[in-house]
Design a protein that fits this description.
Layout (H helix, E strand, L loop, with lengths): L5 E3 L13 E3 H23 L15 H16 L6 H16 L2 H26 L6 E6 L2 E2 L1 H19 L1 E7 L19 E5 H4 L3 E4 L6 H17 L11 E6 L15 E4 L5 E2 L4 H4 L3 H11 L8 H20 L6 H8 L3 H11 L4 H4 L3 H14 L1 H11 L18 H10 L7 H25 L7 H45 L5 H8 L3 H11 L13 H22 L6 H6 L7 E4 L10 H15 L8 E2 L2 E2 L2 E6 L9 H10 L5 E7 L2 H7 L2 H9 L3 E4 L6 H10 L1 E14 L2 E15 L3 H7 L1 E7 L2 E12 L5 E7 L27 H9 L30 E2 L6 H5 L3 H16 L3 E2 L8 H13 L4 H6 L1 H8 L2 E2 L2 H15 L8
Parallel strand pairs: 1-2, 4-21, 7-15, 7-16, 8-11, 8-14, 9-11, 14-15
Antiparallel strand pairs: 3-17, 5-6, 10-22, 12-13, 16-20, 17-18, 19-20, 20-21, 23-24
Helix pairs in contact: 1-2, 1-4, 2-3, 9-10, 9-23, 10-11, 10-12, 10-14, 11-15, 16-18, 17-18, 18-19, 18-21, 19-21, 21-29, 23-24, 27-28, 31-32, 32-34
Length: about 950
């Protein structure tokens, strides 16, 4: 668009170009001169009044006389032809005043009047010489720019904000523009435009090409809420708690701008992560259905397989909700979805009868559906592996200590835990091995009949094979009773621990399993006299040790994973003022499919929760009580989330929830959604920000979205006749004018950098289309460099780090169980004394936890490297040594015993280090002794004093 004006000197001059503004020079000059004379005359009339503080020269004439005399004098000075009597009379008066020293009083008045006349001419001339548009907009949107646009938008928004309240600042007319971290740019309310609360409820849609400034605009909103409303570094607009839910980009553009303590990150590939507590959110089968709908896509062309997979997944969730409400996790969902079809069918039939029609189709279709389910939810195994230690719990079928407090899971675990059972198949194996052993013995006898020396090696191999097969055969025979004993012991401890210690963990079970065999048998058989005592024969100890070894070695790791603090979306949504007000879903750029399904699942869950009629509206006595903003940057990367966006845009406004949708180009959305859906989004967002894009289909679509204007133009025509030339002018209305053209969208909008006061300064220009407003505004925001407050670090699993089991060996377990000179750990229902295994402290409840399931001793106790080595040696000795539990009154012996142990471990040269370790080891060694003599003497003394039973110590 060429805005250069055309200068017209005469009204008869014909100008055919009516698209450019005109400046009518003659009329502008004449009107400016007239304004000068008018202002001068008025000013001189006022000044020629005789004021006490500013007297006139000696005379008896009125003020108008001096004004008229000035003009006579001026004209006479120009030409002698105008030197009439009035000129000569006033000239003599000036000479007389000069002789009296009063002439300066009139000269000063002339000068002041000339200044006033010049000022009036300048002010009027600015308007007179302003180019005049030859067209006038009569209908359609008007594009406002610059200060005029700022003033027009402020006038409208201030009227709304004054009655309904303001949410945040969107623009400033101060200095270089609105800067979130510069209080001067928004200190005066007259310089800023506030987003009215009703306007922000209508949601926001941002679109702009790469590097066009889309992030500048969205971050301006997000950072304002962070620094003004959450951190309160500046005075907030209101006292309403603000909350932010952000679906970040893989680059982590938003996460880096928040301090750790202010934001909670749901991610998988960083040390700073918080797992999602899925069971705390999915309490009902209907919740599961919403979550699953986000994770499993449904094809428009063939929706059966997707919907069927959703039904099966919902059935699995229904089973977990029914039997493990609030206790299950992603690892359990991953475990059960990978079960064989026949086992899945049994669960669905009982817990989700809605899937009966699918089950009736037969095993083959169900297998295909399970394949679709596995393909859609493959990421869940990865998430379970990172968040819940899936790989470490395969041998216990993903069981948790919390679930084992329920009878259903106790029975389920006891049925699944041990894989060797004396079934018909086992019996067949025994028969085959008997035949094999017999055949080997026959071959051995035949071989020995030979006399050749080269037969010796073959004979040795046959004898070894016979021994191996005999051992395997005996193992199968022994496994039946060994398993029965193990399961009986586990069953007893599950029930007893749940009764005596409702908060028990795996390490508590570990301690119980290491009780001496004789005492173990005594406790179990006393609790259940109907048990066959033969299963507790000492010959089954070996099988028992093999069975419990996995629990003993991995208990600490399992507890560490199970006690990790987790995040509940439901609790966060219902808490209007949570401790952590920012939640970030952060997908991985390298592992891009790892979290996408969970993000979509949570979005669908949030949709159903927020739209619930029991999720209260945000108006209470006419006051706003909720200001929740959901920012979905590059939301097209999530795939089709139509089932979330449509109800969110339709119904979230009444709940005080604002959705901010950001994308780069309309073509991205058209590739995922139908064009009708795109029209729906544009029609249901009250705040549309257009950041600019290259010329093309998207720019044309934006141009059409802004609309056309109806213009009234003056058309000129000229007719030449014999009598001369005549001109005529007629106004005509045009209705095909674009408010902004596609090439203007490309050239006018976006981010540009210049230098201001020698420093680089960036500005983003964008179109703002506010709902309920008939016009469109071109606004400018400065580019800000916000401080980086968080630096992402890769999670340990990315570097291949794995967690190791406890250093306890099979021989250590054997020593504890067989009771080489030891007595058992005291428990409810068991004997006193015995081996004491250390129990780790549960991780403190908090909002996040770095990826360290196992606490680092150096961090926990602040030990030096030398002290840490000593601690490790002492721990090894503790786990492998025989300890005896002392009675209560002998607790004062523990310090002496500990010093003895430490001195033995670290040597005399490290006594100071050992003493420093005393507190760290105190919890483990409390009331224990390594002296068998001290143990017997202490208990005999207590038995004699209190009359205790010699066997049970009770």
């Amino acid at each position: 668009m060429n805005d250069k004006p055309i200068y017209v000197w005469f009204s008869s001059q014909l100008v055919n170009d009516r698209t450019r503004p005109h400046v009518y020079m003659v009329s502008a000059l004449l009107s400016t001169i007239f304004m000068f004379l008018l202002a001068f005359t008025i000013a001189l009339t006022v000044l020629c009044i005789n004021y006490p503080f500013f007297p006139m020269p000696t005379n008896n004439q009125p003020a108008w006389f001096h004004v008229l005399a000035f003009f006579k004098l001026a004209f006479g000075m120009v030409s002698p032809a105008f030197q009439f009597e009035g000129f000569r009379t006033y000239a003599r008066a000036l000479i007389w005043w000069e002789s009296r020293g009063e002439v300066y009083l009139i000269v000063i008045r002339w000068i002041l009047a000339l200044i006033a006349g010049g000022a009036g001419a300048w002010l009027f001339g600015r308007k007179a010489f302003k180019p005049v548009e030859q067209s006038r907009q009569v209908r359609g949107r008007k594009l406002w720019k610059g200060k005029e646009g700022f003033a027009e938008l402020k006038r409208s928004f201030d009227a709304q904000a004054s009655s309904a309240g303001a949410s945040y600042i969107i623009a400033s007319n101060k200095g270089l523009g609105f800067n979130v971290l510069d209080a001067k740019s928004f200190a005066d309310p007259k310089d800023v435009i506030y987003m009215p609360d009703p306007q922000r409820r209508g949601h926001c849609f941002y679109i702009g090409g790469s590097r066009r400034g889309k992030g500048v605009t969205t971050k301006k909103v997000v950072m304002q809420m962070y620094y003004h409303n959450i951190r309160r570094k500046f005075k907030p607009l209101n006292d309403t708690p603000y909350k932010l839910f952000i679906v970040d980009t893989p680059k982590g553009e938003y996460a880096s701008l928040f301090k750790k303590r202010h934001a909670l990150q749901i991610t998988t590939d960083e040390k700073y992560m918080t797992p999602h507590a899925i069971s705390l959110d999915l309490e009902l089968t209907q919740d599961v259905a919403q979550f699953v709908a986000g994770m499993i896509p449904v094809s428009d062309k063939d929706s059966f397989w997707g919907n069927a997979a959703r039904s099966v997944a919902t059935g699995i969730g229904a089973f977990l909700c029914a039997e493990a409400k609030g206790l299950w996790g992603y690892s359990h969902f991953a475990y059960f979805k990978d079960l064989p079809p026949e086992e899945i069918a049994a669960l669905l039939k009982k817990y989700y009868p809605e899937s009966n029609q699918i089950l009736a189709m037969g095993e083959q279709p169900l297998s295909s559906i399970m394949g679709t389910l596995a393909a859609s939810l493959g990421f869940m195994n990865d998430v379970a592996r990172i968040w819940e230690g899936y790989d470490y719990k395969k041998e216990i079928h993903q069981m948790t200590a919390a679930m084992l407090k329920l009878q259903f899971w106790q029975e389920w675990f006891l049925d699944k835990f041990l894989s060797i059972e004396l079934t018909e198949e086992n019996k067949e194996d025994i028969f085959k091995k008997s035949e094999l052993i017999s055949s080997l013995k026959t071959s051995l006898a035949d071989t020995k009949k030979g006399t050749s020396e080269d037969k010796d090696k073959e004979i040795a191999e046959l004898e070894e094979n016979i021994r191996i097969e005999e051992r395997l055969k005996q193992r199968i025979f022994d496994s039946k009773n060994g398993e029965k004993a193990t399961l009986a012991i586990l069953d007893y401890h599950f029930k007893d621990l749940t009764k005596s210690n409702p908060d028990w963990q795996w390490v508590d079970l570990k301690e119980r399993l290491l009780i001496k065999w004789a005492d173990q048998v005594s406790m179990v058989t006393r609790d259940n006299p109907k048990l066959d005592i033969r299963i507790f024969d000492r010959s089954n100890i070996k099988s028992y040790i093999a069975n419990i070894e996995v629990i003993v070695k991995w208990a600490k790791i399992w507890d560490a994973y199970e006690t990790r603090p987790k995040f509940s979306m439901r609790e966060w949504l219902y808490d209007e003022n949570p401790q952590t007000k920012i939640v970030i879903m952060k997908p991985s750029g390298r592992f891009n499919n790892q979290l996408d399904g969970i993000i979509k699942g949570l979005l669908y869950y949030m949709k159903s929760t927020i739209n619930d009629k029991y999720f209260k509206d945000d108006k209470k006595n006419g006051q706003t009580v909720r200001n929740l903003h959901m920012v979905l940057d590059e939301f097209q990367n999530l795939g089709n989330v139509k089932e979330f966006i449509e109800p969110a845009l339709e119904m979230f406004a009444s709940k005080g929830v604002t959705v901010h949708l950001c994308c780069q180009d309309f073509s991205q959305l058209k590739a995922i959604y139908q064009e009708e859906f795109l029209k729906f989004v544009l029609a249901n967002t009250m705040n549309i920000y257009i950041m600019g894009m290259n010329s093309g289909d998207s720019a044309e679509m934006v141009s059409n979205l802004v609309g056309k204007k109806h213009i009234s133009k003056v058309h000129a025509s000229q007719t030449k006749q014999e009598s001369g030339t005549s001109s005529s002018f007629s106004p005509q209305v045009h209705d095909n004018e674009l408010v902004i053209t596609p090439d203007e969208i490309n050239s006018f909008l976006g981010t540009r950098f210049t230098k201001v006061n020698g420093k680089p300064h960036g500005e983003t220009t964008f179109l703002y289309l506010p709902g309920n407003e008939k016009d469109v505004f071109m606004l400018t925001l400065p580019v800000e460099n916000y401080p980086v407050l968080y630096q992402a670090e890769p999670a340990d699993w990315i570097s291949g780090k794995t967690y190791k089991p406890s250093r306890i060996t099979t021989q250590d377990i054997k020593k504890a169980v067989e009771g080489y000179g030891t007595s058992s750990v005291s428990s409810s229902g068991g004997s006193g004394g015995g081996v004491s295994m250390d129990k780790p402290k549960a991780n403190p409840k908090g909002l996040y936890m770095e990826d360290k399931p196992v606490a680092d001793a150096a961090d926990e106790f602040e030990l030096s490297p030398e002290e840490l080595d000593a601690l490790e040696m002492a721990t090894q000795k503790e786990e492998r040594s025989t300890y005896y539990q002392l009675p209560t009154e002998d607790e004062n012996m523990q310090d002496t015993i500990l010093k003895d142990v430490i001195g033995e471990v670290v040597g005399g040269g490290a006594v100071q280090t050992g003493l420093h370790l005393l507190d760290a080891l105190g919890a483990k060694a409390k009331n224990l002794t390594t002296s068998r003599t001290k143990y017997h003497e202490s208990w005999k003394k207590k038995e004699k004093k209190e009359g205790l039973d010699p066997l049970t110590k009770n």
